[in-house]
Write a structure and sequence with these properties.
The protein is mainly α and about 300 residues long. It has a domain of about 200 residues: MetI-like (MetI-like fold). Helices cover about 70% and strands about 5% of the residues. α4 packs parallel to α8, α6 packs across α11 and α12 packs antiparallel against α13. It is globular and about 75 Å long.
C-alpha cells in the first residue's frame, strides 16, 4: 500500500506542471469569459481602477442584435457545412488510393502531409496570389487560376478583389480550407486502413465483389470510427475558422470591409473595446459547437461500427 501511495504521489508530481498550466491558460480563461459575459458594460481597465459592474444579460442581447452578427454566423456555418463533408470525402478517397499504392507510397504521403506543417498565413498568401487580379494600366494581371480558366476559353473571374461577389469569396476560402484540412484527415484515415484485416478484402475478391461495393460495405464500416472522429473535429475546427480568411484577405477580412468575417473574427474585433460582448459571443459559439458535437456523437453511436 505504501508503494502504491508513493507511486501516486510521483504521478501527481509529474503531472503537476501540466495541471498548473491547464488551470492558468485553459480553466481560468473559461471561467473568466463566463464572468465577463454576465457583467454589463465590462471593461478590464475600469475594473482595475475599482469600478463595479452589474449582473445581467445585456451583452448577449447586444451582440445578437449587432448588425454584423448574422452575417458572421452565416459565413461560419456556410464554410463549415461546405468544407467538412467535401474534405472528409476527398481524404477518404485519397487515403484508400494511397493505401493501395506500393511504389513511391512514402513520398506521396509526405507530399500530402506538407500543408499540415506549413504556416497557415503563408498558405493563405499563396492562395491570395493564385486567385488575385491586379490592375496593370488599362488591363489586369491575373493569378494562375484565371490563367487556367482563360486557357480553356473561359472569362477570368474576380475572385477576391474589390467588387467580387460573396459566393466567389466563399468558393476561394472553401478551397483553401479543404486543401488545408486534407493532410490531417488523410493521416488519420490512412492509419485506420493499416489496421484493417486483409482477410476481408481477400474474401471479397473470392466472391467477385466489385471495388465500389468492397469500398462501401467493407472499407467505410471498418473506418467509421476514424470517419466519425475527423467529422467531429472538422466541425469543431470549421466553427472556429479565422486564419484562412485572414491569410487570404488580410485584416480587412474581405475584399471591402469584413464581408467574409467569421464568428471568431467578430470576437477578436470586439475584445479590445467590448470585452463583455466578445465574451458573450464566445459563449454563444461554444454552445453551438457543443450542440453540433453532441449531435455528431449521437449519430456516430448509431452508425459507427467498433
Amino acid at each position: 500500500m505504501d508503494n502504491k501511495k508513493k507511486n501516486q504521489w510521483k504521478a501527481w508530481l509529474y503531472l503537476a506542471p501540466t495541471v498548473v498550466l491547464l488551470l492558468i491558460f485553459t480553466v481560468w480563461p473559461m471561467i473568466n469569459t463566463l464572468r465577463m459575459s454576465v457583467l454589463e458594460g465590462y471593461d478590464s481597465l475600469k475594473e482595475i481602477g475599482g469600478a463595479s459592474f452589474s449582473f445581467g444579460f445585456d451583452n448577449f442581447k447586444q451582440i445578437v442584435e449587432f448588425y454584423r452578427f448574422k452575417d458572421c454566423m452565416l459565413t461560419t456555418i456556410l464554410l463549415t457545412f461546405i468544407t467538412v463533408p467535401v474534405s472528409t470525402l476527398l481524404a477518404l478517397v485519397i487515403a484508400v488510393a494511397l493505401n493501395s499504392i506500393k511504389f513511391v507510397k512514402k513520398t506521396l504521403q509526405t507530399i500530402f502531409f506538407l500543408p499540415y506543417v506549413t504556416n497557415t498565413i503563408a498558405i493563405g498568401m499563396v492562395f491570395m496570389a493564385m486567385f488575385n487580379r491586379i490592375p496593370v494600366g488599362d488591363t489586369y494581371s491575373y493569378g494562375i487560376i484565371n490563367n487556367i480558366i482563360q486557357a480553356f476559353g473561359g472569362e477570368p473571374v474576380n475572385w477576391i478583389n474589390g467588387g467580387s461577389s460573396y459566393w466567389a469569396n466563399i468558393a476561394v476560402v472553401s478551397v483553401y480550407i479543404i486543401w488545408n484540412a486534407l493532410p490531417f484527415k488523410i493521416l488519420v484515415l490512412l492509419g485506420g486502413l493499416q489496421g484493417v484485416n486483409k482477410q476481408y478484402y481477400d474474401a471479397a475478391k473470392v466472391d467477385g465483389t466489385s471495388r465500389f461495393r468492397t469500398f462501401w460495405r467493407i472499407t467505410v464500416p471498418l473506418l467509421s470510427p476514424m470517419i466519425a472522429y475527423v467529422v467531429i473535429t472538422g466541425f469543431i475546427g470549421g466553427f472556429k475558422e479565422y486564419s484562412s480568411v485572414l491569410g487570404i484577405f488580410g485584416p480587412s477580412m474581405g475584399p471591402g470591409n469584413h464581408e467574409m468575417d467569421t464568428m471568431v473574427g467578430l470576437i477578436y474585433e470586439s475584445v479590445s473595446e467590448q470585452q463583455g460582448q466578445a465574451s458573450a459571443a464566445a459563449l454563444i459559439l461554444f454552445v453551438i459547437i457543443f450542440a453540433v458535437t453532441m449531435i455528431n456523437m449521437y449519430v456516430s453511436k448509431k452508425k459507427v461500427h467498433y
